[in-house]
Amino acid sequence: MYSDAKTSGGSVRGRVEQPSVLLVDDDADAAHTLSSILRQDHYRVVLARSAEEASRAATENTYDVALIELALAEVDGLELLAQIRKHSPTTSCIVLTGYASLESAVAALRRGASDYLVKPCVIEDLKQTLRQAIERRRLTLLAAQREQQLKELNDRLEERVLARTCELMEANQRLAEANAAKDRFLATLSHELRTPLTPLRAGIDLLRERLGESEWRPILDAMQRNLAQEARLIDDLLDIARITAGKLSLDKRAVLLHECLRNAVETIEPRAAAKKQILRVEARDAFPPLLADPVRLQQVVANLLDNAVKFAPSEGVIRLTAWLAEGQVFLEVLDGGPGIDPEHLPRVFEPFWQADRSSRRMHGGTGLGMAIAREIALLHDGELRVRNAKSGSGACFTFRFPLVRAELRQANAPSIALPPPLKILLVDDSVDTVQVLSWLLASKGLRIREVNGVSQALDAARSETPDVIITDIGMPGQDGYDLLRLLRADERLRDIPVIAATGYVGSREQEQMAEAGFSATLSKPFDLIELFAALERVGSSTKA
User: Fold this and answer.
1) Phi, psi values for residue 405, rounded to 5°
2) Residue 238 has pLDDT above 90, yes or no
3) Please, which residues have CB within 8 angstroms of residue 248's CB and are 6 or more apart in sequence?
4) Model confidence over 310-332: pLDDT tens digits?
5) How far apart are CA 133 and CA 139, in angstroms?
6) Residue 340: other Cβ atoms inside 10 A
7) Calpha distance 29→232 (Å, rounded)
8) Which of 114, 194, 216, 284 could form a disulfide with 323 if both were Cys (CB 3.0 to 4.6 A apart)?
9) What confidence tens digit (pLDDT) does each residue in 430-448 have?
10) Confidence band of 457 (pLDDT split at 50, 70, 90)
């Protein structure tokens, strides 16, 4: 009988044991002769002279081959063949009979016999048949062993895959929870940082109206510039957090490039004026409407101009140039300053990096503007590069992105004329915000009622129906979404326009507010024009 086989180098090797044969024959002389011959060839022979002995031997041990005489005195040899196959299915059964017939041969093969020999047979033929039967059994056992090993290996692999899949699912769940936590953190941080700026901006606008052209104007201008700078710093911090989390995205639509450039220049102009710098804009080509994100496009230009204002000398000239070439849009800002140390050029777009990190540094800022600008350029399938201009005329930043034409829908120019007298209900948990906004709107002839929570807002709206509700989103207990839902569920109040004034300024939050059914949204800190434009839109629809 062959032991477990092992493979090495692609061939099968095995340690050969003495093959075993169960010889079943009730003819004592024939059985003795055959067993002697087989033992001389080193077979281990067990002789069974009856069906009972054969069944017991097959039950107690396993044999390589069973040689079975069909013509037994006590039992049908075919029945014994079936019993041996049942007790030892791996044993090769060979019929060796002196009473041969075609019917018995067919019946034996159907019962599981591997071969059929007729007495008297040639001994060498018998030996050859035995060797073939043993080899077939060895190969069968080896195949079964390999199949079992493969099954066990497959089971272990499935267990490992299942365990690893569970680990990955848990890791994905943790990552999803971490991303959700980051989203919540960014939204909360945006709200908490922007909300205090709203009463400041509204207060400055109110003071401008009350004081007019007076000696206080320079102070108000300084306050306005610093408030705008604070808002930009908050935007930068939130944007770099979105970039790190992979959350920064674009809202592409038809854009007029000259309007983006003008808005960016107007944003930076007060800071440039404080240093008596001149901003010169040159458009060398006529630009068609472009498919881009107007807010982000303006942000890139504003960041580049803001950087130029820092490093350009007082009373210097900052040049913004735009042109088309080879299907690309090029925007270039030249600051006319001292330029950038060549060793520092590769690091200009690294977040938080600044050439001068000492407490005596001449230029402020967080070191985020250029990193954010480059990321926005990449999102537009473009690039942002920096070099030192020739002839020592300062650092030159070039923003390039593909020219993708867009169809521009005509829109009427916005008006800020209010349809008074509107009744406005202000809802915000920030007492300062509702108070200053209330003063500002009252100065425009509007009737204002202010509350600090959802339940108070519902009571106020039921006691006197407002024309418009302006509500904060993030409030303790119940938020702006709860207020909108409760208003829409009230038959008397369901048609009141509701404006969301919030510090949650991400595109996802804006989409969520629009889907919820807010009539308009305002991002804190908003200015008078934005506020009045929103009021006019919803107020006009109310009066209609």
Assistant:
1) -75, 150
2) no
3) 239, 242, 375, 376, 379
4) 888 899 999 999 999 999 999 99
5) 10
6) 19
7) 111
8) 284
9) 888 888 888 888 887 888 8
10) very high
DSSP collapsed to 3 states, 6-31: EEECCEEECCECCCEEEEECCCHHHH
- Cβ of 526: how many Cβ atoms within 10 Å? 20
Task: Measure Cα distances from 161 to 149, 332, 383, 511 in Å.
Answer: 18, 54, 43, 40
Q: Are 254 and 369 in contact (CB under 8 A)?
A: no
- Element of type H or E holding 366: none
- Full 3-state SS string of 505-542: CCHHHHHHHHHHCCCEEEECCCCHHHHHHHHHHHHHHH
Q: Rounded to whole angstroms, how far apart are CA atoms 319 and 283?
A: 11
Backbone angles phi, psi at 259, to 5 degrees: -70, -40
Pairing of strands 423-427, 395-402: unpaired
Q: What is the pLDDT of residues 189-215, one digit of tens each?
A: 777 777 788 888 888 888 887 787 777
**Region label for 460, one of left (φ > 0), alpha (ψ between -120 and 50) or beta (otherwise):** alpha
Q: How many CB atoms lie within 10 A of CB 40?
A: 8
Say how many C-beta atoms besides its own lie within 10 A of residue 226's C-beta.
Answer: 13
φ, ψ of residue 453 to 5 degrees: the values are -165, 170
Rounded CA gap, 371 and 351, in Å? 5
Kindly tell me if the per-residue pLDDT of 351 is higher than 70: yes
Of the ranges 23-27, 29-33, 414-418, 454-458, the best mean pLDDT one: 454-458
In order of 218, 372, 448, the CA distances from 496 in angstroms are 41, 40, 15
Cα separations (Å) of 287 from 237, 383, 430?
32, 19, 45
Determine contact, residues 389/316, Cβ cutoff 8 Å.
no
Return d(Cα 397, Cα 384) in angstroms, integer: 7
- pLDDT, residue 15, reads 46
Amino acid of residue 133 = A
The residues near 274 (Cβ < 8 Å, ≥ 6 apart) are 225
Q: What's the confidence (pLDDT) of residue 505?
A: 59
Tokens linked to 196: 């205090």
Distance, in Å, from the CA atom of 310 to the CA atom of 335, rounded to the nearest integer, reads 9
Q: How far is CA 163 from CA 17, 120, 172, 177, 428, in A?
A: 42, 63, 14, 21, 50
Query: Quick one: which of 457, 107, 83, 255 has its CA closest to 95?
Result: 107
